[in-house]
Amino acid sequence: MNARFLSRQARNDNAAQPAPDDMIPSSGPAMMVADRACCCPSRPAARIVVPPSPARGHQTDLLLCRHHYRASRDILSTAGAVVYDLAV
User: Fold this and answer.
1) Which of 3, 16, 54, 72 is 20 to 30 A from 79, alpha carbon to alpha carbon?
2) Helices (H) and strands (E) in the chain, counts
């Protein structure tokens, strides 16, 4: 998708912003990251690892933009998810 078709908010989502306090900086070799988040056309800012649950017997990885991560971080914390900052 070409950036000119994205909303102004989606284009600005990639701007450097400080990481929230509960994000773990990704260290060591760079993680493989898609060009686009799972939630919207923005670049991913956080890799979320959601642990298995009774309804889902395996862990799940999500790539979220910073906006959608901030909107979801309370529920992700309740679920016991581990969050890696991809902006590092």
Assistant:
1) 16
2) 2, 4
In tens, the pLDDT along 27-60 reads: 544 455 677 888 888 888 999 999 998 998 999 9
Count of alpha carbons within 13 Å of 65, Cβ hemisphere only?
18
- Per the rule left: phi > 0, alpha: psi between -120 and 50, beta: everything else, 15 is beta
The chain-wide mean pLDDT, for the chain, equals: 75
> Rounded CA gap, 84 and 33, in Å?
12
Q: CA 33, CA 65: separation in Å to the nearest integer?
A: 12
CA distance 22 to 70: 10
